[in-house]
Specification:
It is built from 18 helices and 18 strands. Helix 9 (260-266) links the parallel strand 11 (248-253) and strand 12. The protein starts with a strand and ends with a helix. It is globular, with a radius of gyration of 24 Å. The longest helix is centred in the last third of the chain and has 19 residues, at 386-404. The strands form 5 sheets. A 6-stranded parallel sheet has the order 2-1-3-4-5-6, with helices on both faces. Strands 7-10-11-12-13-14 form a 6-stranded parallel sheet. The chain has a two-stranded antiparallel sheet with strand order 8-9. By secondary structure, the chain is of the alpha/beta class.
């Protein structure tokens, strides 16, 4: 008997926290359970062949797949092929993409069983029934949420290879108390913390094994300030104990909740050690109310300004275009306001209709039209037509290439001028007209096109050459170009993109 837990990650550098939770909580079945991760883009036949190589010689083989918005299409192909070449294999699905609206999904129809929601308890129970009987009568099994203290933490299942080469995802809590309708966390009743001492002991063990990059997936890291302070102090202690062997930690931050005690702790971190992902999503109060997002905009802006001016943290701030009730002019005002605050990165996102999210209630009143295929991106609303939404999509992509990449730090303010959204939109429209592409634009070509645009706006040849030269002629900075950043033997602790921002 064999149980294989598998998923297709978005990148090789990502290590699945969800699969490791499942493996850690298999109880008496843990010795039968193997974990096999793949990456989207891999050949379906290769994935199937590798899974079948671990099929039990006799008896039952269960293959469980973690299904997400980014891997649903490719995982469907894998499941279909597995069922065709090895129909005796029992396939169990789980994950957010198949936990809602499951009846209409092809992958669910192909599979034998589905676990919706929390799988820590329900998956091992289901596997015991499949292996030892009595056989489950129902195809769909609603996940049982256990007490947090009953969940076995999975961090020992990160291998030495994971620690050396991949991002380690960790969580001090699950769930979210907020009800933003575009987010699956809107369905949570609250946030549930893990026992802090146990969690920090696991972080201590990871650090002792060489882990230096920790990405927290908690939706509301700073909701409980006492807990936040203890976690930040853990990392501050590591930095103080050995400044030449620094750590990097990433947190999702609620923007309008930053008390003085938390500011004091944050201000103690050196450059390259701390990143905050901050969801603004919209600065329009009417839109915020429409999607049940509670946010004090003035306090949020004040806190972002403080973080930029008084801390060394790297800030990644999110906006979403296409929300119901928001037109381009409103989004542009919010974008310009955020540019004025000068976070290191502005993630210009386009609304997606995640399965199960309450945003669907606005479909008819606000003319929301979504792509029926993953990732279910908004195509049009009653205020933004399809063509304009496509322009916003291209703006988002080019913004990532030019602004968020950190490669044009000195050129960007010139591009944006006094009207950041309008000016970058004009550049985006022109760039698409010149390239007819949003991907696979070589960096040297992109730098040349940026220079060409600046000349068309009346900037002199020598000034264009000077500013692009200051930005390494569009080439990325090397670690040796960044002596002020903490280094370790194999380079920067902070990811490369963050390091480029910190260089300026």
């Amino acid at each position: 008997m064999t149980i294989l837990l598998s998923t297709l990650n978005a990148r090789y550098s990502h290590a699945s926290l969800g699969l490791r939770y499942l493996q850690a909580n298999m109880g008496d079945l843990r010795e039968l359970t193997q974990l096999h991760e793949f990456v989207i883009g891999a050949k379906t036949t290769d994935i199937v062949e590798k899974l079948l190589a671990h099929k039990a010689a006799t008896g039952t083989t269960i293959v469980g797949f973690g299904v997400y918005i980014w891997n649903i299409e490719e995982t469907t192909k894998v499941v279909a092929m597995l069922k065709r070449v090895a129909p005796d294999i029992v396939i169990v699905l789980g994950g957010p993409e198949v936990s809602y609206e499951s009846a209409e999904q092809q992958i669910v129809q192909l599979a034998d069983y589905l676990v919706t929601g929390w799988g820590d308890v329900t998956l091992p129970q289901l596997c015991r029934q499949i292996l030892y009987g009595p056989q489950p009568l129902m195809k769909v099994h609603a996940g049982v949420q256990p007490p947090m203290a009953d969940i076995v933490l999975p961090y020992s299942l990160y291998s030495d290879h994971d620690i050396a080469h991949r991002t380690l995802y960790v969580e001090a809590s699950r769930g979210c108390p907020f009800k933003c309708e575009f987010c699956l966390s809107a369905l949570d009743k609250t946030a549930w913390p893990f026992a802090l001492d146990n969690f920090l002991a696991e972080m201590e063990s990871l650090h002792a094994r060489g882990a230096r990059l920790f990405k927290f997936v908690d939706r509301t890291f700073n909701l409980n300030v006492k807990t936040s302070l203890k976690i930040l102090q853990f990392f501050l202690d590591k930095l103080a104990a050995d400044p030449d062997d620094p750590v990097f930690a990433h947190f999702e931050l609620v923007p309008d909740h930053l008390p003085d005690a938390l500011k004091d702790a944050i201000s103690q971190f050196p450059p390259g050690a701390l990143q905050f992902e901050i969801g603004i999503q919209s600065f329009n109060p009417e839109v915020q109310a429409l999607v049940s997002r509670k946010q004090n905009n003035e306090k949020a802006a004040e806190n972002i300004r403080w973080l930029i001016q008084q801390s060394q943290a790297h800030l990644h701030v999110d906006l979403i275009a296409g929300l119901p009730g928001e037109d381009v002019a409103s989004f542009a005002r919010g974008f310009d306001r955020l540019v004025e605050l000068q976070p290191h990165e502005i993630q210009f996102g386009i609304l997606k209709r995640l399965r199960g999210t309450p945003i669907i209630r606005h479909t008819e009143p606000y003319g929301l039209i979504f792509d029926p295929h993953p990732p279910y991106t908004i195509l049009a609303t009653d205020l933004i037509d399809f063509q304009t939404m496509q322009r916003l999509q291209r703006f988002s992509r080019y913004w990532d290439l030019v602004a968020n990449s950190g490669r044009f730090a000195h050129t960007l303010p010139i591009l944006l001028g006094d009207s950041p959204f309008a000016n970058f939109m004009a550049f985006s429209d022109w760039l698409y007209g010149k390239t007819d592409a949003t991907h696979r634009i070589a960096l040297d070509r992109l730098a040349g096109l940026v220079g060409q645009w600046l000349r068309l706006q009346g900037m002199g040849e020598s000034a264009v050459n000077a500013v692009l030269s200051t930005d390494y002629a569009g080439k990325p900075a090397r670690p040796t170009d960044l002596p002020q950043l903490p280094l370790k033997a194999d380079g920067l602790v902070a990811p490369k993109r963050q390091a480029r921002h910190l260089a300026h």
